[in-house]
Amino acid sequence: MPEHPGAQLPASGRAPFGARLARAMDAHGPLCVGIDPHPGLLDAWGLPRTAEGLRRFSLTVLEAAAGRAAAVKPQVALYESYGSAGFAVLEELLGGARAAGLLTVADAKRGDIGSTMEAYAAAWLEEGSPLAADAVTLSPYLGFESLRPALDLAARTGRGTFVLALTSNPEGRSVQHVGGGGSVARTVCSAAAAENARVLGGAGTAADGPGAGTSAGDRSGLGPCGLVVGATVGDALTELGIDLAGVRGPLLAPGYGAQGARAEDLPAVFGAAAGQVLATSSRAILRRGPAVPALREAVERSAGELAAALG
Ligand SMILES: O=C(O)c1cc(=O)[nH]c(=O)n1[C@@H]1O[C@H](COP(=O)(O)O)[C@@H](O)[C@H]1O
User: What are the pLDDT tens digits along the chain (311 aa)?
Assistant: First the structure.
């Protein structure tokens, strides 16, 4: 039986990203382990601030996360700062995660005019690209439709996107809340809802509630267009009149852990969309390294408390 009535199997033959992510979250809990090799963390782990230090850090986190988390999210900026050697490590990490059965989210936050966006899409989402991940983070501030090449390629290859909607940092409000009832954030959420409705079939907008075929908070039939909504946004969804369940996409939630949000805060933030949430945590877990058993314990504890809070 198809994963979702009305959903087309991606041309790649790979199961759709939403179905693969739901399976991984059901198996391991709704945790994404962020791989952010900050220079200070390399120091704390006794590793050199070199590409080899970056490599040992990345592969250690992978070893700790494999079989214990749904996904990993390398922060591309922290690889990019080492130039081509950093990108080589990132390629190795993405390949290693694939081999270990971990879904990958490349945190690249790309966004540009459509013609340039085609190249970003090819780099992060195209079949056979050395940097291809299961999903990539995107910035919609050149207009949601400028992301079209990535949205289309993701749907075609069974991959996903996470588009910034309500970010976890306090400065985000100054852009994302603008417009009140017709806020920038709500516009982005409505566009994501329309994109998922296009791919999955059925109607759906962020204002209208769940569309056909997916009940509120149900993660089994999610579309490929996810959103980034910080775990730290408090009551912003109510304040801005956004119904995330109606988006019918996965929700990447940074802010859990080092930025202060706790697992038990998440149900109130996400309401009926709690089942769609993939919480991501980097420093709170990484500070427990470099010993693999301590990292594993941190991953298991986070995955367990998130599963208990979010279902
Ligand atoms: O897209 C992201 O992952 C992201 C969006 C956002 O709104 N806030 C946010 O913190 N992030 C990223 O999530 C990670 C959070 O790291 P920790 O605060 O150490 O858990 C960093 O890599 C951020 O760049």
Answer: 344 444 557 888 899 999 999 999 999 999 999 999 999 999 999 999 999 999 999 999 999 999 999 999 999 999 999 999 999 999 999 999 999 999 999 999 999 999 999 999 999 999 999 999 999 999 999 999 999 999 999 999 999 999 999 999 999 999 999 998 899 999 999 999 999 999 998 755 544 444 434 444 578 799 999 999 999 999 999 999 999 999 999 999 999 999 999 999 999 999 999 999 999 999 999 999 999 999 999 999 999 999 999 98
Mutational test site, ligand 1, from 173, 280, 285, 306, max ligand atoms within 8 Å of CB: 280
Q: Which residues are catalytic?
A: 109
ipTM, two decimals: 0.99
Show the 3-state SS of 170-206: HHHHHHHCCCHHHCHHHHHHHHHHHHHHHHHCCCCEC
- CA of residue 109 relative to chain centroid, distance: 11
Q: Which atom of ligand 1 is nearest to the CA of 167?
A: 7
Q: What's the half-sphere exposure (Cβ side, CA atoms, 13 Å) at 41?
A: 21
Cis peptide, bond prior to residue 254, ω within 30 of zero: no
Residues of the domain holding 210:
17-310
115 lies in some domain: yes
**Residue 3, domain member (yes or no):** no
Residues within a 6 A CB radius of ligand 1: 34, 36, 75, 107, 137, 167-169, 228, 230, 254, 257-259, 280-284
Q: How many domains, the chain?
A: 1
Q: How far is the CA of 167 from the centre of ligand 1 (A)?
A: 8
Instruction: Output the domain CATH number for residue 266.
Output: 3.20.20.70
Residue 264 within any structural domain of the chain: yes
Distances (CA, A) of 304 to 100, 128, 252, 287: 20, 34, 17, 19
Q: Is residue 157 part of a domain?
A: yes
